[in-house]
Design a protein that fits this description.
Layout (H helix, E strand, L loop, with lengths): L3 E4 L4 E3 H23 L4 H25 L2 H4 L16 H18 L4 H19 L1 H5 L7 E2 L1 H6 L4 H6 L1 E2 L2 E3 L2 H20 L8 H18 L7 E2 L2 E2 H23 L16 H6 L2
Antiparallel strand pairs: 1-2, 3-5, 4-5, 6-7
Helix pairs in contact: 1-2, 1-5, 2-4, 4-5, 5-9, 5-10, 9-10, 10-11
């Protein structure tokens, strides 16, 4: 598998970087379109997105390095080589979440409502970004057979790329990408419900991705480990618990509180809805 997309001598552009970048652009586009529809201040959205991306990348890298510390402690310069892979999505989600909370609190913006907008873009970005792992020959699963992969209807070019270290591997990156894409489509449908409660989209994302990642991680053979425990499964379980808590709290509230979608919201400005805290 050729990892380099463009080599012009003094600079090399990797497929991994390209797909991560495309995933970010797609996420930003979805977020921007929704915030524009709600008339949310454009400068706020741009600054929030920029800060979240920067700190998300840093968090994703530090998370990965932390669980491979024995390797990087003797090769500190390689910490900067993110084009070789090694961006842990859970680290990016956690630091991105923290950045969003801090920035929204600073500007007195309702955190829950902004997260409901952001998570729809994030899951699409994840679906696209996972393809970077394909070109880096990472995020793969256990040894399997050519016949098994063909029987699953997996495209031939993916099967060829899954011939790693002399054996065919389960394309777990592909499973996760498809799962995220279905999650994105489901969230678009859920978002169209005018009685949707604030926080439910975020809860759906946490539960959907949590379950998906636990299942995919059970097949992976290159997971980050904490002793005998796969770290991604542990964090994903936490995601599911938090998502369920949000759902339960919203059920107890009764009537939908996200009056952006209610019939009586015609005389309420969008700015009031989003910035109501």
């Amino acid at each position: 598998m050729d990892r380099v997309a463009l080599d012009i001598g003094f600079i090399q552009i990797y497929w991994y970087s390209i797909f991560i970048f495309i995933g970010m652009l797609a996420a930003c586009f979805v977020i921007y379109k929704e915030t524009k529809k709600r008339n949310i201040d454009e400068d706020f959205v741009v600054n929030l997105t920029f800060n979240t991306i920067i700190f998300g990348i840093i968090g994703a890298r530090l998370y990965y390095v932390l669980f491979n510390l024995s390797y990087y402690i003797t090769r500190p310069l390689e910490i900067l080589e993110i084009w070789n892979g090694g961006l842990a999505i859970h680290g990016g989600i956690l630091t991105g979440l923290l950045t969003t909370i801090i920035y929204c609190k600073k500007h007195k913006v309702n955190v829950a409502k902004m997260l409901d907008i952001i998570v729809v873009g994030i899951i699409l970005g994840q679906a696209i970004g996972r393809w970077g792992n394909f070109f880096n020959s990472e995020a793969y699963g256990a040894i399997t057979t050519l016949e098994t992969l063909k029987s699953q209807g997996i495209p031939q070019f993916i099967i060829r790329g899954m011939y790693i270290l002399g054996e065919y591997r389960q394309p777990t990156f592909f499973y996760e990408s498809v799962g995220c894409l279905f999650g994105f489509l489901a969230m678009l449908i859920i978002r169209s419900n005018k009685y949707l409660k604030t926080g439910n989209l975020t809860a759906f994302y946490l539960i959907w991705y949590g379950i998906l990642r636990i299942l995919v991680e059970s097949l992976r053979s290159d997971s980050l480990m904490l002793g005998p425990i796969k770290v991604a499964q542990l964090v994903s379980l936490l995601f599911i618990v938090v998502g369920l808590i949000i759902f339960i709290k919203n059920i107890r509230k009764g009537q939908a509180d996200n009056f952006l979608y209610r019939n009586d919201s015609k005389e309420t400005s969008i700015e009031q809805v989003v910035y109501f805290n």
